[in-house]
Amino acid sequence: MLPNLLEYHWVEDVDDALILLSRPDIKTVPLAGGTYLLGQNDESIQAVVDLRDLGLAYISEDQRGIRIGSMTTLQSMAEAPLLKSFLGGLLAQAAQYSAPSPLMRNAATLGGTLALGAASQADLLTALAVVDAEVVLRSGQKTQVDLRGGTPERPGLALSGVTYKGKQERRIPWQRLLLERRPQELIIEVQIAPPGRGWGTALQRIGRSAVDTALLIAAALVEVENGRYRHVRLALGGANMEPQRLHTVERHLEGQPVQDLRLLAAAVQAGLADFRPPADFRASQGYRRVCGANLAYRVLEEAANIARWRDITSSEGRA
């Protein structure tokens, strides 16, 4: 609960929300699904701005790829036919795993999950890391114009301190969100570009049960062209972990033949040499490192097999 909460604001316009969040005299925070915020005992928060009526709950597709609004719930993502068919259902599957029950998934939102980062313990973060997702942020911009009476040459109007509302948007890679997000910036949507012709994805996790928080998650996106790795994206994540892209593994594989499994095993071993996951009461660092090597190999092999099949069938279609 929030013991010192004084104000609750329900807004219908993004600019109105940004103005409320930018007030310097009262600490105001956005309220999305509330699954995390309302469980905090934060005495400094005095006001919340409810974002549910801003029209930011949507999943759509255009020429740039998939667009998912920040207020889209995890349950909506798990059930969306568009996401079930996009990238082999990678994002829909990850959203399903990200909360243990439909009740939680119907409340938790994409924007809240991104804003929390590792604290959300969501599988979705690892999946977003391999699809090179971009986050659209919007910030309020207030211009103070003093229109008090001027000089005889340039007479002014008797309107002091008029405020004009404006906005500015920018895109950043989601993995830089926690480092680069400015105060009072709102997450508007996530954009994901479509993959190339021969692509494959895979997601695997280790947990005490299918609904438990994952001790470790591995996600891969592989593009194959003419039997060789064209693009490789691999990430590991899990409970209390920021997803880590394994760039060394990716560089080792790109340009190499897909069928060489010894090369795949060597690339995984070389790339995981610097993998240092955190230890906690769930699992030790050593356990996560060993599991990470196994999961990384398995998701890359699965994604590569799917990508190779797609590359072969698309080549036959063009012949």
Task: Tell me about this structure.
There is one protein chain. The chain has 319 residues and is of the alpha+beta class. Among the domains are: 7-50; 196-319, CO dehydrogenase flavoprotein, C-terminal domain (Enolase-like, domain 1), CATH 3.30.390.50. It contains eleven helices and twelve strands. The protein has helices at residues 14-21, 74-79, 81-85, 90-97, 102-107, 110-116, 123-130, 177-180, 247-253, 261-271, 285-318; strands at residues 7-10, 28-31, 47-50, 59-62, 65-69, 134-147, 159-173, 186-192, 199-206, 216-225, 228-238, 241-245. A five-stranded antiparallel beta sheet has the order 4-5-8-6-7. Strands 9-10-11-12 form a four-stranded antiparallel beta sheet. Strands 1-3-2 form a three-stranded parallel beta sheet, with helices on one face. α4 (90-97) runs antiparallel to α7 and α9 (247-253) packs antiparallel against α10 (261-271). The longest helix is centred in the C-terminal third of the chain and has 34 residues, at 285-318. The chain is globular, with a radius of gyration of 23 Å. Mean pLDDT is 85; it is low at 143-148 and 156-165. It comes from Thermogemmatispora argillosa. GO terms for molecular function: FAD binding; oxidoreductase activity. It holds the Pfam family FAD_binding_5. InterPro entries: CO_DH_flav_C, CO_DH_flav_C_dom_sf, Diverse_Substr_Oxidored, FAD-bd_PCMH, FAD-bd_PCMH-like_sf, FAD-bd_PCMH_sub2, Mopterin_DH_FAD-bd. This is Carbon monoxide dehydrogenase.
List keywords for this structure.
globular; 11 helices; Enolase-like, domain 1; alpha+beta; 319 residues
